[in-house]
Design brief:
alpha/beta, Nuclear Transport Factor 2, Chain: A, Rossmann fold, five-stranded antiparallel sheet
Length: 453
């Protein structure tokens, strides 16, 4: 349900790189000359890494960092990055952070633009200006604030960590309704950028709704913007999404140019599983739209995804059974978790504490109790959330609820984009956009017919 490329990349980089950023946060530059010198050095180091010239960077590392990173590991990372990024275009910025808890420690981030994605390369320097940490991650290309005849955009800071966000406002509409866009699992940017073509479903939705008279707020996920926080805060659904989604609701409610009585949630995938709880806990939410959400536990969906992947690999029934039984056993352990469990254990690739927090989402219970309008949408060609299991489960659960509307779209995948019938993430690799019929249905749900743009 998340961005497979980013999850795979994170696993690769964490094996090879030190993340010495746990106490880092934005701070005032106290030594401008030192900062400028280290920015220049980091810019040169990033260019050398990109060119495969690793020796000068390794030579500047402190003892611990040098012991953890080798030229072969760096080469493996950059070789793997190349097809995901496309051709290098240019450097587009840098930033400096000081570690409050470690005197003299400074981190420089160098941002690079490629054809398909950007990269952030972080160099952490100790008080002797040796490299004590190195971290590389994909990041979205810097998106300008866009303006057309139909809408304009405004930059926002969302939540306690000041996450980058955008408010997209329709032109010529006084106090429009506003939708908060809730992304799926994984370290997503505000546009949910995904695939080799860098498709942007949330950008499509924000712009499409604005063209239909509806405002929206979207924002970078916390662990996308600050991956080191996963280690310092701990990974829970509250830290991953709920707290920042609540902050976005607060922002919307404080705006005098928005209709505070018409604040909606549009949740995609995991965001669609979180939206019912957020709506139940905040009476200001006027309604919810669930895009490929599920009333089931995420662990059950992972089992189904694993089974299908084994089938597609051509394994025999006996081989599938042998490999799926341990997955089901971990699923069962997840469903049995409580506060007395070992929350540091790893289950289905994630800490048990994260799974315990996900168990608290209970989309089935919260959705069944909601009185506000709900629109539940599903692509028929979705291979991550299943029409015959998840969408059908919504229909059974909410049968007879007159506040709920269902829509199933033939030929659309998990991103609500036209599918080529490929049941893996390569279906997301060609340039594509959210189907206009989906945008029409969402707009009709959020706006009375008399107000439709």
């Amino acid at each position: 349900m998340g961005m497979h490329l980013r999850r795979w990349l994170s696993c690769l980089t964490l094996l090879a790189l030190l993340a010495a950023l746990s106490a880092c946060g934005p701070a005032m530059v106290s030594d401008e000359e030192r900062a400028n010198t280290l920015i220049d050095r980091s810019t040169a180091f990033e260019a050398q890494l990109r060119a495969g010239d690793y020796a000068p960077v390794l030579a500047e590392m402190d003892e611990n960092c040098a012991a953890a990173i080798s030229a072969d590991q760096l080469d493996a990372i950059y070789t793997s990055l190349t097809p995901a990024l496309g051709d290098y275009l240019e450097a587009y910025g840098s930033s400096v952070r000081y570690a409050e808890a470690s005197a003299g420690t400074l981190t420089v981030s160098i941002y690079s633009k490629y054809q398909l994605y950007g990269t952030e390369t972080r160099f952490t320097y100790n008080q002797d200006d040796q490299i004590s940490g190195l971290y590389i991650q994909l990041c979205s290309l810097p998106g300008p604030l866009e303006e057309t005849d139909a809408f304009t955009e405004e930059a926002l800071e969302v939540g306690a960590h000041g996450l980058s966000g955008k408010l997209t406002l329709p032109k010529g509409v006084e106090k429009p309704p506003v939708a908060i866009l809730l992304p799926g699992s994984g370290a997503h940017d505000m546009d949910e950028t995904i695939g080799a073509a860098a498709n942007k479903p949330f950008r499509d939705i924000a712009h499409g709704l604005a063209e239909r008279g509806i405002a929206s707020i979207r924002f970078d996920k916390r662990f996308y913007a600050y991956p080191a926080l996963a280690a310092t805060e701990g990974i829970t659904i509250e830290h991953e999404l709920l707290e920042d989604a609540q902050a976005a609701i607060e922002l919307a409610a404080a705006r005098e140019d928005l209709d505070r009585d018409r604040i909606y949630l549009i949740g995609h995938s995991l965001g669609g599983m979180a939206a019912p709880r957020l709506a139940a806990e905040d009476g200001r939410v006027a309604g919810v739209v669930l895009l490929a959400g599920s009333p089931r536990n995420l662990a059950d969906i992972v089992v189904d995804q694993s089974f299908e992947a084994l089938e597609q690999a051509g394994l025999s029934s006996a081989e599938i059974l042998a490999q799926i039984e341990p997955v089901e056993a971990e699923r069962d352990a997840i469903l049995a978790l409580d506060t007395g469990s070992d929350l540091n254990a790893t289950l289905l690739g994630q800490p048990a504490g994260y799974w315990l927090s996900l168990n608290g989402l209970r989309p089935d219970r919260y959705a069944a109790e909601l009185a506000c309008p709900m629109l539940i949408l599903q692509g028929a060609d979705d291979f991550q959330v299943y029409p015959d299991r998840d969408f059908a489960a919504w229909q059974r659960l909410l049968e007879g609820h007159d506040n709920v509307t269902f829509r199933l779209y033939e030929g659309l995948n998990h991103l609500f984009m036209p599918s080529e019938g490929i049941r893996d993430v390569t279906d997301y690799d060609r340039e594509n956009h959210v189907d206009p019929a989906v945008l029409d249905d969402i707009a009709a749900f959020l706006l009375p017919a008399s107000e439709a743009a």
